[in-house]
Design brief:
Helix content: 25-40%
CATH architecture of the largest domain: 3-Layer(aba) Sandwich
CATH superfamily of the largest domain: Hypothetical protein VC1899 like domain (Restriction endonuclease-like)
CATH topology of the largest domain: Rossmann fold
Largest sheet: 6 strands, mixed
Number of strands: 10
Distance between the termini: 25 Å
Radius of gyration: 22 Å
Structural class: alpha/beta
InterPro entries: DUF6293_C, HFX_2341-like_N
CATH class of the largest domain: Alpha Beta
Number of domains: 2
Number of helices: 9
Strand order of the largest sheet: 3-2-1-4-5-8
């Protein structure tokens, strides 16, 4: 029988006790520290923090992440939570600043991410949080109530991956500058074995064009993505082309870990 681990995730900013003390109190089995990939000069006490954690936790892992990018943090946390689906995952949203806190909290709202966000209230705050930790002590640790949100399905993320880089798929033979058509998405879905096309036989096996495939594509993939603002669908001549919006590109970055289910 697999042992359920207590996994803590914490963006690493200008804090020390707010990261270490909850880990100590809750006897974590594994800690992930999200280190800011955009800075070459982290505070000197980060090394001390890592040493302290390693003295009280069986395993500490570090992950490089752009902590100034909400979607980067969101994607990192959802990926870690997905990799520990059978464990108890706790996410510290008070250790890295406002932007990481937002990304980490949204990650815990995803209904496919069974993770609990928590906030640490320190005993006192420092005047200079760049030379020394921004706060000290632990007054209280509070679970953050979250409101469930639906993330894109695996099939939808797979289609977003194709839209992000159509030429990565050998079956895309259009002009490299032309966006994909709905027909291209259907062929890609069949080639990748996506579930929404599992019961749709190719036209050659049906004795003609499979118009039902377009309805299935619209219902299960494109309409939800369009409603969320992740794609646009525009007529170009007699065809309708599909493109990712900037919001869609960010959503793909945040949830592309779901593609692991297709491998």
């Amino acid at each position: 029988m697999d042992v359920v681990k207590r996994v803590h995730v914490a963006p690493l900013g200008y804090e020390f006790d707010r990261i270490v003390e909850p880990v100590r109190d809750q006897r974590a089995d594994l800690v992930y520290l999200l280190e800011d990939s955009t800075t070459d000069d982290p505070p000197g006490y980060h090394e001390q923090l890592l040493t302290e954690l390693e003295s009280i936790v069986p395993e500490v892992r570090t992950r490089s992440c752009d902590l100034s990018d909400v979607y980067a943090v969101l994607g990192e946390v959802t990926t870690i939570a997905s990799n520990h689906a059978g464990d108890n995952v706790y996410v510290n949203v008070s250790g890295g600043g406002t932007i990481p806190a937002i990304g980490a909290t949204i990650a815990c709202m995803d209904v496919s991410t069974d993770a609990q966000a928590y906030y640490v209230e320190p005993e006192s705050y420092a005047h200079d949080g760049s030379v020394e930790p921004a706060s000290s002590g632990l007054a209280e640790t509070t679970p953050i109530p979250t409101y469930p949100i639906d993330s894109p399905t695996t099939d939808q993320v797979a289609i977003m991956a194709f839209l992000a880089d159509p030429t990565a798929w050998d079956g895309f033979h259009e002009d490299r500058t032309a966006p994909p058509k709905k027909k291209d998405l259907i062929e890609y879905a069949r080639d990748r074995g996506l579930s929404f096309m599992a019961d749709r036989r190719p036209p050659a096996e049906r004795g003609g064009e499979d118009k039902g495939a377009f309805r299935v594509l619209d219902t299960h993939v494109l309409e939800p993505l369009l409603e969320d603002g992740y794609v646009t669908i525009e007529p170009v001549g007699r065809r309708r082309v599909v493109e990712l919006t900037e919001r869609g590109k960010n959503a793909y970055r945040a949830f592309r870990h779901k593609l692991a289910a297709l491998e």
